[in-house]
Amino acid sequence: MASSASPSKRREMDVMKLMMSDFQVDLVEDNVSDMHVEFHGPPDSPYEGGVWKVHVELPEAYPYKSPSIGFVNRIFHPNIDEQAGSVCLDVINQTWSPMFDLVNVFQTFLPQLLLYPNPSDPLNGEAAALHMRDPEAYKRKVIEYVKKYAQPDDVTRLNRTGQLPQDEDGKEDEDESDGFLSSSDEDEAGDMGDLQ
């Protein structure tokens, strides 16, 4: 990347690169700074077969500031908040570099997070405790969540804004939130610890 490239040009190039990869990318209102990316669980893991919609927001200073990443549909993992979907991942929260791009996030960082959780620095205490106490029960719970919340039809049902369609009573089908960690914030990053 040439040093003279502006952050906005780099943002557009990174989003285009992600769109040209194997990931389904849906821009929110045609905004290259706000999108949903379809993410598949890594093979040979309890997450295999799962599909998640991940909300990505790029700050104005991207790539010098990290993207905000949040899982829209539920996932059971020590370092992902089950309700809000926010992600505790050192490379996004603390050690982000302009050398990284969105393809790195989806091809390397998120798969590594799912394969190698850090239960000593949890956002989901139940998942962390189960992972440490009974790894086989943890795997069963992950698989249960994949079957319940992360099937391809579940992702299809999530509309472009990341919300489940509403039923006749005006209520969402599930209690899903689209919250996520603003991973560039110093206060939050300082509380995250290292994930290695």
TrEMBL record:
InterPro entries reported in the protein's UniProt record: UBC (IPR000608), UBQ-conjugating_AS (IPR023313), UBQ-conjugating_enzyme/RWD (IPR016135)
Domain of life where this protein originates: Eukaryota
Active site: C88 (glycyl thioester intermediate)
Coiled coil spans: none
Keyword Nucleotide-binding attributed: yes
Presence of keyword Transmembrane helix: no
PANTHER family per record: UBIQUITIN-CONJUGATING ENZYME E2 (PTHR24068)
Protein family according to the UniProt entry: Belongs to the ubiquitin-conjugating enzyme family.
Protein name, entry field: UBC core domain-containing protein
